[in-house]
User: What shape does this take?
Amino acid sequence: MASTRIPPSPETQADATPAATSAGFLANKARFRFFGLTLDGCIKAFFGGNAVVAVLVLTLITIFLFKEGGGFFAQNRANLQIYRQAGLEYVDFIRAQTTGHTALTHELSDLRLRQFHRLTEAGKSLAEANAALAGFDEFANQFGDAIIPLRGLLSDLTETATALKSKFATTENLKIARQQLLAAGKTAEADKIVISEVNFDAELKPLLGTLPAYQAASAETAAKITAALTVKPALPTPELQARLEQFKMLAAAYVADFPAVEKNLRAWDYRQPVPFFRSITSFIFGRDWIAQSSWQEWYGILPLFVGSLMVSFVALLFAVPLGIGAAIYINQLASPAEQRIVKPCIEFISAIPSVVLGFFGVIFLGENLRLLSQQSWLAWVPGFPFSERLNILTAGCLLALIAVPTIFTLAEDSLNNVPRAFKEASFALGASRLQTIIKVIVPASLSGIISAVLLGLGRVIGETMVVLLCAGNRIAIPDFTAGLAVITQPVHTMTGLIAQEMGEVPVGSIGRHALFMIGLVLFFLSLLINWLAQKIVRRYRIAID
Amino acid sequence: MSAATLSPMERLPAPPPSSPSLAVAPVAAMSAPAADLPPSRPIIDIDHVDFFYGQSQALHDVSLRLDEKKVTAFIGPSGCGKSTLLRCLNRMNDLIDGARVAKGSIRIRGIDIHAPAVDVIELRKRVGMVFQKSNPFPKSIYENITYGLRLQGVKDKGRLDAVVEKSLRGAALWDEVKDRLHASGLGLSGGQQQRLCIARAIAVEPDIILMDEPCSALDPISTSKVEELIHELKKEFTIVIVTHNMQQAARCSDQTAFFYLGRLIEFAATRTIFMNPSNPQTEAYVSGRFG
Ligand SMILES: Nc1ncnc2c1ncn2[C@@H]1O[C@H](COP(=O)(O)OP(=O)(O)OP(=O)(O)O)[C@@H](O)[C@H]1O
Ligand SMILES: [Mg+2]
Assistant: This one.
């Protein structure tokens, strides 16, 4: 009997939306059977099915991320291997040496600028000031020119190494092409491709042969710098004089390091294989992310990771006091009328699309923050004035807006869960409202508040549009020596970079796999944050019950 | 009670001679003290109080004078306003929106507690409260007891330690918890938690302790412990206890007030209320024929 009640055509069942079917359920309540399932069974199957779909999707995403990201490390190892084989690593030893010199000359020009200001402030004309600095300029020029021999050598070596690398790349491409032809069964065409393996040993000979030239150049540079350091230009103030002395010590230390560079060059061997863990460590601890380069590509996540953390940190700096303060006010102090107005307003913020916030940041907030920072009466604020319109601060302010509703709502919930009896007990002992809030209500809901903050962090770390538009997108670890001013520097973030690059990287390329690795890092970061938040909340529940 | 412990109350400003809440000329309409008791100093003087929750009136013209260092029991059927009156005494009803004493006055040691100059925080230090459901803070036993004192700015460790021991002994809990003073107060049994709340209330040395059905959630043994405790506390404190348990009222109280539908029906010595009530409603209630 029951079987005749089964809707006859399977198509209509498949088409039926859940709502429609459930309406059907109501009509045939008593006798309904669906593939032998009762009404309860169907409802259970429907909801159970949804749960299964959720788990399935999560699994698929995880597998997909691992599959796409997993290829990265092998590719990165090959990338590092060719860096060594083609002699780029060798050349970079010398490059590091010249970079050290460049940093020192920057310091010198900074010193000069300051002196110049002192002099003009003291009423000297430009010509007079320049004349007074003639001694210093001579010193600086002498120091600056000292690097010329090394630099000449470096540019020659760079060319050699680049040529060798591109030769290798061509060979590899040919190999791939032949492989494809073979796979397609076009043996004749494949055979036409002639591949001559790169003979690194022979190709690197000229490069390694420059060692005597390097020794000569390095010695010349060292001698010139040492000679320059004996000159003692006089500076207008003791403070700057002290800085010059410090500079001289740095320069002396820099020269003292030359033998170490030479030792590195001698010890260098292109045949030494790059261990696999280097591929991993260079990703985790690498300080450069350079995806397109004629020289060498680097995939170090550190600048992006630090960028994401900095932006989120600044966001939380604003959002935590705001969100928690508002939650305490609304939950404990506000009148019902205020509650009715403020609560929906805060919750509405989360309805603003993040691209709109980002847009607002680009065309309004960034520019106005910069103008504000240039007000002379705000000069005491660390980092003010700043010149970058888009920076950590701009992005952080907007991300704070995104985090506030999350933190507010969850913190308010947990304040709400504090038993009323605690509040009454506190009042009955002669506590004021404020004392009750600080000593009883907040401590009792602390775990809930902490997990609210954590989930707020999860929310901003995963946020993409705002940081892409407003963080300034400069891939570099911000300069923490600047102190608090660090928050006025531009950064790039993990999410921002993925969004920016994903459309441009070719399938199968190392760049694409690297982006998926970032995705994996983000995925696990969010997982960790959520797990922590849940753990904390659970502990709190047990404590209260 | 020493003069020193009374001083905060005495520091309360005297009420203005004609405060608005005294509009009904209280002296003339002063209620009689409980009949057939030797006259003693009234500490709480409730005078023609009408109380409203928003629009609904919960107390009708209640007048009552409670004596110092006596135990007074409030009895009556559910919803008759016992808790409401109790919570008026330390102005806990202030926390409820729209709750107000519309008429009459409540004086403690002669001071109108609704006078604008009265500091409600000071009042609550003098009038402690123990709730129906034990509600220790989710803190250690030690912190629970020192909470009130710390609010008053007491930091001296020696003094706090002494108060913790004195209060726990006073609440007959010392021997059970002395080895785990820094364990959570929520880890105690229900009866112990309630005694902890009593210890917490007496730690600030109030004059008056209000107890709203303190034993209703306890087993018989814990209940009898709390009852013994009330006997002890009576030596130092004035106690007002709300109870549904007739035996309890009979056992621990000196005087009893019977309420019905927001009105005070009868107020007399406990023995009189239970043996020889003058009002038939009282008689019916205490003999268990309604309620
Ligand atoms: N917060 C409140 N808001 C509105 N009405 C209330 C509130 N609290 C109590 N009432 C009402 O006031 C009246 C007296 O309540 P009260 O709690 O004082 O009774 P009770 O005698 O303590 O009863 P019980 O023995 O059940 O505790 C009841 O009718 C109750 O519904
Ligand atoms: Mg009650």
Confidence is low (pLDDT under 50) at residues 1-20 of chain A.
